[in-house]
Amino acid sequence: MSEEAVEIDVNELGEKIVRVIKTIYDPEIPVDIYELGLIYDVMVSTDYDVKVLMTLTTPNCPVAETLPKEVEDKIKTLDEVNDCEVEITFEPEWNKDLMSEEAKLELGML
């Protein structure tokens, strides 16, 4: 497979991963975690290993144990994914400015 074909596949897989992430909702806020701005980065290697850098709304978030696991498990359901690791960071700290316009509209903030 040419290097260009691999790059396209990786990009397509990245888009699929985002679609999967958009099915995961913060239990306290009726908005998916992607639109909420909790996902900082999705990295896909040419070996189809995935690393997600994400945050939580607060360090004391009640789903701190379960939400990253849910993200990892759902991404691993994609046939193309070899492995997935989710890393939690609080740098930068999450704030409402990270939310998409769609999320702000949904929550009546616009």
TrEMBL record:
Domain MIP18 family-like: 15-88
InterPro entries: Fe-S_Maturation_MIP18, FSCA_dom_sf, MIP18-like
Pfam family, one: FeS_assembly_P
This protein's name: Iron-sulfur cluster assembly protein
Organism: Pseudofulvibacter geojedonensis
